[in-house]
User: Fold these one by one.
Assistant:
Number 1:
Amino acid sequence: MQQIGLNLNQHIETFILASADEGKPASGVVQLHADFMDYDLSIELFDNLRKTVQWEQESLWIAGQERKVPRLVAWYGDSDADYRYSGKLHKPLPWIQPLLELRQRIEIVVGSDFNSVLCNLYRDGQDSMGWHADDEKELGAEPVIASLSLGQPRAFHLKHKTNPKLRHKMTLTSGSLLVMKGATQQHWLHQVPKEANITQPRINLTFRNVIGSSVK
């Protein structure tokens, strides 16, 4: 795979997320780098990662029943970046070169350090991610989450935790980078909904910084 470069002329759209209480400070910031990566390069990277990432389909216990997670996942990172989410402890796989190079490039653009990445493979529109916030204590009070999309465009939704009338919807295209920061995870939920008409796959890479072991 060729070296991953930066698009120095990229357009950045910033969303200041409103507070549920009028007159209160903004409750988060989301930035969309719509053309972070050249489209052709993003598809090349998608093909590479689909073959080389150690994808797994996890199962979760919900209301006493074991249910398969509706997507494939993999957790990569530094050796001490243990992370617990959805009730399961994830020990990181060692970095592979494409993910390590992406981490370095994204750190330059975002201005934050990352020690791990959650990889999600949505095989088609039946695969999804339900409403949630990346608010685990080991990510800190105001984590920076940098999310790179590759492959099939998919819808991405945000809604306020206490006032669901406050919402944002956008489409994440191949090569786009979405950055959530500030108090976003404290006050907002996000999801990738099912889309029955979609038949093609998408990979999403969410880079983050684990600041303390989730075992504690």
Number 2:
Amino acid sequence: MKSKATAETPATKALASAGVTFGSHFYEYQEHGGTRVSSEALGVPEHSVIKTLVMEDENANPLIVLMHGDCQVSTKALARQSARKRIETCKPEVAQRHSGYLVGGTSPFGTRKRMPVFMEATILDLPEIYINGGRRGYLVSIAPSEIVRLLSPTLVNAALAD
């Protein structure tokens, strides 16, 4: 059995194969703890912890939204900026089917299905971000520019203060 220190996930394989240098950060996962738990455990601002949300449009087409941990997504603003009629969060089992990851361990890297990615534009203002590494209780730290390089996200302004 692999130790946590050498955890390999589809996300870390995708990052490594793309030549991304990343840090590995483990914490004690808490059901429904969200980014508050991981930011406190790692001693980093919750604003720097990026959530990966699997959502779907009015035709049930999946998409990924990357948002600051201390913010909510305005689905109305996101729908407007993505030229969709409606966007809503997927049910956990649907999100898992699209991404290949358990909810709470969803990474935008190495997903089962290729999905369009929408990223809150202000994430690029941060020098380093912490984003899920493909399993519960595991974040990777990377430069936000790597998300742009690897995923070509559409930048949006859809953050609502939590």
Number 3:
Amino acid sequence: MENIGISQMYLLLSVNDKGGVAPIGSMRTRSYMIASGILELILEDVISLSEDEVAVKRDLPSDKEYLRLVYNKISEETSIPLKKLARALVTNRKLFKELFNSIGDTLVELNIVTKTSGGVLGNSSQFVGGEESKKRIVEQMRAELLEEGPVSKDTVVLSSLLIGNHTLKRYFSEFEEDELKGKISELREDPAHKEIFAMVDRISHTITTIIASVG
């Protein structure tokens, strides 16, 4: 997998051709970007999720500084209900914009994308390019999920997020998408992946509930 975090890979694969988040479907794209940040911090053992409560476990590593907004929101309290955390970040466009820019700026620093301005008023950041990185990420997902061999946690999480935000079809044929979803179903029965799927499902369910309630 590309040597960048899950939320960075998610942003790369989820922005539109102009490098931004299109108005149509933006709530779902934004929601799963929040989920990608939460899951990345869980996998890095920076935060924990238990009984629908999220809590800080250790200081935010310097290489995860782009997720500072998510981390700070959690650290404001001893622990915070997952639904409260997700709703606060998903429904606040200003906070999402800050997170989007923070993640995107790191991709600029890595020379993966170029930052431009766009949107209706021309005051929204857009992150364009990154085609080679996108290709490597997709090819790694294809290799792990459509061929024999081990599947990494990053691939399980990223593919689940892309299924959730309906982006997978951009990169895989209809046949490949069906095969990939079938492999995901098989992995759910594997004890080695049971815990990660439980976390993904819990966060995805929370996200779906929020999307349904705010429209």
Number 4:
Amino acid sequence: MSTYMITYFLSDTCGCGHDHDHEHDHEHEHIESSEDNIIAKIKSVGAWAHFMPEAFLVKSTLSAKEILEELKAVANEGDILFVTKTDAESCACQNQAVIDWIAK
């Protein structure tokens, strides 16, 4: 089992292609919150730790590419996803508890 860091940046839309920073009327069905979907999918791939606002650590038997494919299945167009393998020896963090969790 490996530990991966997953970070994400979510686009400004609900996935429907319309800008939502102003009042407007249009007919379409809104897609569920991309963040809710991404977080639920991250939590489903293994033991997890939410250590930064848009970053998780997960311990999984899946590869980084497999995790990315799982996340892409629930992401909206324009969302940015990054998955990288990490270990306690090759990273540093101001919060020692994060390194300890990775090392477990």
